[in-house]
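Section 4.2 – Deliverable D4.2 (structural model, holo form)

The reporting period included a commitment to supply a predicted holo structure for the target in complex with hypoxanthine. Inputs used:
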Amino acid sequence: MTYEHLQEAAAVIAQRTGREQHQAAVVLGSGLSGYAASLENAIEVPYSDIPHFPEPRIVGHGGSLFSAPAGDGAVLLFAGRVHTYEGWDLSDVVFGVRTAALAGASTVLLTNAAGGLGEGLSPGDLVAIRDHLNYTARNPLVGDNDDRLGPRFPDMSEVYSKRVRGLMRQAFASAGVTYREGVYAWFLGPSYETPAEIEMVRRVGGDLVGMSTVPEAIALNHMGVDVAGISLVTNYAAGITDTPLSHEEVTETATEARGRFTAVLDALLPLLVNG
Ligand code: HPA
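Output (structure tokens):
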């Protein structure tokens, strides 16, 4: 990935959507990507039409960018993301969100499906991410730093913007959904965690576990973008119940939660765009 590649991708997005600027962007996680296609007036651009864009390989993760009006501007929605466990370089994993930042997004919402272990969390809950733990020892900023993107040693003391968490609190309230916050722990996957790993995460203060989001958050924070995260708890994390974890359970819970997720996003997108 080079800065020029990001610029070329952002230029194609502007050209194909007819919008020079998108003020905000949303990455839709596993089982949640149907939200983009449900929007009226959304313009779809398949990832395969955007230069240098990596294309998701796993079923159920989609593979298109959508542009939709929201508030006083417009938002980009990524239906489908690529994951580190598929073998992608982290520069590819963060390519889409870095492109969104160059396309004008000063706020980016990252959503995901996650296992829940925090006190009081149950499958079906939507949880705003307050902070993260990185259990992969991987970082998208490893390698030469391009100063046009951000500093060599970025501060990480407020990756998940307090300002945007305030907007999320408002959006949850107007959607009639209980607002919760939690700490998300990134594991590489693709195997789920062991009960011992989940116990470790619990002891250090983690509430959610998943296989995405953190690399994108690190790259966006590097660029000075305000990041927000929402996890849909699709299952109890390993060892909490006797039920084995399965991808089917993850996608089924995501389907059941669609109504609440849609209500929250409908309320939140205009707030993200208008700031
Ligand atoms: N662990 C990791 N990733 C996940 C989980 C989980 O329990 N549920 C959904 N994505």
